[in-house]
Write a structure and sequence with these properties.
Layout lengths: L11 H11 L3 H21 L9 H10 L22 H11 L4 H8 L8 H7 L13 H9 L3 E2 L5 E2 L2 H8 L4 H14 L5 H7 L5
Antiparallel strand pairs: 1-2
Helix pairs in contact: 1-2, 1-3, 2-3, 2-7, 3-5, 3-7, 4-5, 8-9
Length: 204
């Protein structure tokens, strides 16, 4: 039996309301929700290569929700727990599961980190995560994960070029660099300059 995913995909308005409800501060909301909007814009730029095989509404929802778990890493003083930041994906997945969202929505949270974390990565690096595979499997998951590589919530937030990310990912191993190169080949490179101007954030 085929599942009608459209019945379970939240609207932009519903997603914004979730961000507003769970953001501990206005600053946290602005940082995280703006980043999610940017990733959505990047993903939509890259969609054309894969229409009509990609569920556009699902990519949009996944982009807008992928970092909602970041809010669970803020303490009462409004400070972000950078040490355990890698947990934001599983925390977001758990949050959406608790709210009744199906697994295929929650996976955008837990399966977008880097170019995919494997069980071996978790064990080898001693990451504070359950020992599982957190790889993007569907084309929608891959697209959101890939789009996420082109913007960073640093201080200040920045857009990241393909060359910059490719250089940085080398430190995680040659396999990750190869994986990123394959994603570039599959989805192409986004045009970040208009977004950099629109959001008045640097491109590095």
């Amino acid at each position: 039996m085929t599942i009608d995913h459209t019945l379970a995909i939240p609207t932009d308005e519903q997603i914004r309301a979730l961000h507003e409800r769970h953001a501990p501060t206005e600053e946290a909301f602005e940082l995280v929700y703006t980043h999610c909007q940017i990733i959505c814009a990047v993903a939509e730029q890259l969609l054309d290569r894969h229409r009509p095989a990609v569920d556009v509404a699902l990519v949009r929802a996944g982009s807008l929700l992928h970092d909602i778990g970041v809010y669970r890493l803020y303490d009462d003083a409004g400070q972000l727990d950078h040490e355990h930041y890698i947990r934001h994906g599983v925390l977001g997945h758990a949050l959406l599961r608790d709210l009744g969202f199906p697994e295929f929505i929650g996976r955008f949270c837990s399966h977008h980190t880097g170019v995919g974390l494997t069980r071996e990565d978790v064990l080898r690096q001693g990451l504070p995560l359950p020992a599982c595979d957190y790889t993007a499997d569907t084309v929608e998951e891959q697209l959101v994960m890939y789009a996420d590589k082109f913007h960073s919530k640093t201080t200040p937030p920045t857009f990241v070029t393909t060359a910059s990310y490719a250089a940085g990912v080398q430190r995680f191993g040659e396999d990750k660099a190869v994986r990123f190169a394959a994603l570039v080949e599959k989805f192409g490179e986004p045009d970040l300059l208009p977004l950099s101007h629109r959001y008045q954030q640097p491109l590095i």
